[in-house]
Structures are given as structure tokens and as C-alpha cells.
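Researcher: Structure for this, please.
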Amino acid sequence: SDLKTILGFVDRLSEVDTEGIEPLVYMSEEVNVLRADEISNEVSQENALKNAPQKDSDYFKVPTVLKK
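Model: Predicted structure, C-alpha cell format:
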């Protein structure tokens, strides 16, 4: 029943006269505000560890991969 209602609405849209109307590229006039890219050759230790899930002082803490 819901699908029939939706399909009926879509059929009605095909009857709308759109002659002379420019197609929309975007739904609103909003413009994305992006930050400027800054070139950097290195990442500081502080920034690298900032989002680490686990850290120990100045190092990343990771699960053991090799057996002793």
C-alpha cells in the first residue's frame, strides 16, 4: 500500500511542466567552508599521540605481536 502511494506520487511528478526551469545542482545556497591546507613535513610526537587509543608516556601502546 505504501509503495503504491509512493509510485503514484512519482507518476504525478512526471506530469509537472518543467519547461524553462534550470535543473538544481545543490538543494540549497549553502557553501562548504573548508580550512586551508597547510604543508608540513613532520608530525610532532604530541600530535601523533593525541588520538592514540593507548599510550605509555611518549610511546604508542600496542598489543603484543611476537612471542618471547
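Researcher: Any notable elements?
Model: The first helix runs from residue 2 to 13. The longest strand covers residues 55-56.
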